[in-house]
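Something for you to look into today, if you have time. Just paste the record in under my message, thanks.
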Amino acid sequence: MGADDKIKNASHDLLGQGKEAVGNVTNNDKLVAEGKADQVKAAAKDGVEDVKDAVKNN
């Protein structure tokens, strides 16, 4: 995985964590859900990049 992809995925994860935290503080269930979704997307992208790296290295 390229450094750019790692940085983008980490930023999406952090953004999701922030949204979730703000949603929890403000009792905004929609924002909590968006934050969790952002985190799941970032994790999925990391997984795809890991598979690409594994295929590349074999």
